[in-house]
Amino acid sequence: MQLRYGFRLYPNARQRAALSRAFGCARVVFNDALRAREDARVAGLPLVTSAELSRRLTAAKKSAERAWLCEVSSVILQQSLRDLDAAYRNFFDSLKGKRPRMGPPRLKSKRDTRQAIRFTANAGWKITTGGKLRLPKVGDVSVKWSRILPSTPATVTVIKDSAGRYFASFVVEAGQQEVLPPTASAVGIDLGLGHFAVLSDGRKIDSPRFLRRAEKQLKKAQRALSRKEKGSANRDKARLTVARTHARVADARREFHHQLSATLIRENQAIAVEDLMVKGLTRTRLAKSVHDAGWSQFTAMLAYKAGRYGRTLVRCDRFEPTSQACSACGVKDGPKPLHIREWTCGACGTVLDRDINAAVNVAKAAGLAVSACGAQVRPERVPAQRVEAGTHPKPRPKTVRQAGIARLQAGEDVKSCSLPSSSSTSSSESC
């Protein structure tokens, strides 16, 4: 299993300038290669191969127009070409249905919210004995080490976000070396907006609503940004203020997801969660609240932590009627409006909480044995009612001959009825 560890970088002014040059060179190489392939596609020529792009890059570094490409490490330029290949590969895989639908590669801009360069092992980067990150043609950059890397990293990616912060992202190989001791508990999770998560054991985790709580501060910062003249230094400062406010909101949400997912993984051997259609929910009037909750990020954390620590994560089908079925007897009595938070089952008389009942049904649909508020873990078998056993086929209408034969077999008097011959089709010969 490959894991990514991120640490905060604190480069000085000279190092920030060197990183800015590296970001710009990697961006120019990516755009030149993309433009070359698009020109060949429009002209009806074969695809420009990666080897040809690499030869063109080498020739461009020797020209007067692109001589400044030599000021940065050649590894990050080659990795920029690899990034373009990966973008094309992902796009074609999405057309084949191997991954979610995505668009073709696009040109990069220096105003993008994220700038990144990647150094591989042959670039000569290393971690010094003093705890600094030595990058080629950049220098020794100070790092805030918050934890220890489990193994020697293969690559390091230097990232600059929209708030002007720098991060170093290391990719390391980590297997199931930290398998937690097994437990006998299992839990189902019902994700929502009123409560971020409701567990099948009855616990309810409130939704922090980080974006809603920061809306007043964001409104003030965005109003100040709109009043600044475009292209001025004051506008850049105001933009950084807005970006840092958003970054604090995202960091707080990510920390909340990490803590909650780690607690659930530590306490339970198996976890069931509903497979929500988040992309569809973000197109409704609840879009802001759905984005603020961050369900996709939370379930992704549950997935990789379950694989790392030897736990089981099961996803329940999104079309499972978890809010319509009684968790005690399993009877489905139809959908209910959202304002109904508690209801009584008409079949067994159990008083059910809407969210807890849904969490228990999520776990049962995933095959986990859980209980809440006295509900049965494995409901007893209830004989189906006559009206629920299915529809019986209607008997086919009998002909006159068949009706007469049936009456003869029953011992009835059929003297007044003359049975028609098989060749006769006239209705006057019938009874």
Key words describing this protein structure:
431 residues; alpha+beta; globular; disordered C terminus
Protein architecture, described:
The chain is α+β, with helices and mostly antiparallel strands. The protein is built from eleven helices and 14 strands. It has helices at 13-42, 50-62, 74-95, 210-213, 215-226, 233-267, 278-281, 287-293, 295-308, 354-365, 400-409; strands at 2-10, 115-119, 126-127, 133-135, 139-144, 155-160, 166-173, 186-191, 195-199, 204-206, 270-274, 312-316, 342-344, 351-353. The strands form three sheets. It has a seven-stranded antiparallel β-sheet. Strand 4 and strand 5 (139-144) form a beta hairpin. Helix 1 (13-42) crosses helix 3 (74-95). The longest helix is centred in the middle third of the chain and has 35 residues, at 233-267. It is globular. Mean pLDDT is 84; it is low at 371-393 and 414-431.
Query: What gap, in angstroms, lies between the N and C termini?
Result: 84 Å
Number of helices: 11
According to DSSP, the number of beta strands is 14
Average pLDDT level: 84
Strand percentage, roughly?
15-25%
Mass-distribution shape = globular
Order of SSEs, N→C?
A: EHHHEEEEEEEEEHHHEHHHEEEHH
Stretches with pLDDT under 50, minimum 5 residues: 371-393, 414-431
Classification by helices and strands: alpha+beta
How big is the Rg? 33 Å
* Strands ordered across the widest β-sheet: 2-6-7-1-5-4-3
Largest sheet: 7 strands, antiparallel
